[in-house]
Structures are given as C-alpha cells and as structure tokens.
Amino acid sequence: MLENVVEFFKNLPDKVCVQCGDKMEEQSECYGNTCDKCNSL
Fold first, then answer.
1. How far is CA 36 from the centre of its chain?
2. Distance of alpha carbon 2 from alpha carbon 35, whole angstroms
3. Are 22 and 39 in contact (CB under 8 A)?
4. How far is it, in rounded angstroms, from Cα 6 to Cα 33?
5. What is the pTM of this model?
6. Which of 1, 34, 36, 41 is least enclosed, having the fewest CB within 10 Å?
7. Is residue 21 left, alpha or beta, with left meaning phi > 0 and alpha meaning psi from -120 to 50?
8. Residues facing 16 on adjacent strands
9. pLDDT (tens place) for every residue of the chain, 41 residues total
C-alpha cells in the first residue's frame, strides 16, 4: 500500500505558476500558486 502512495506523489505533474507558467520550486510549507518573480511585481 505504501508503494502506491509513493508512486502517486512521484507521478504528479510539476507545479507551475498560474501567472507566467514557469515551473515552481515546490516547498512543503507553501500552498501558493504564483512564483516569487510574479509575487514581487
């Protein structure tokens, strides 16, 4: 069962910024959907 959970998370698509579409570096404590570049605008 644990292997299925691990495979699920391995197969998730990359997180992308909703404004510019760039791939985001995921952080476990962050649920934001915009990258640092777009947040600072």
1. 13
2. 31
3. no
4. 23
5. 0.62
6. 1
7. left
8. 23
9. 667 888 988 888 888 999 999 998 876 667 888 888 998 86
Residue type, 14: D
CA–CA separation, 28 vs 4, rounded Å? 20
Written as one string, the DSSP assignment of 1-41 is -HHHHHHHHHTSPPPB-TTT-PBPPP-TT----S-HHHHT-
Tokens standing for 6?
Answer: 């691990």
Residues 35, 22 contacting (CB under 8 angstroms): yes
The sign of the torsion formed by the CA atoms of 33, 37, 40, 24 equals positive
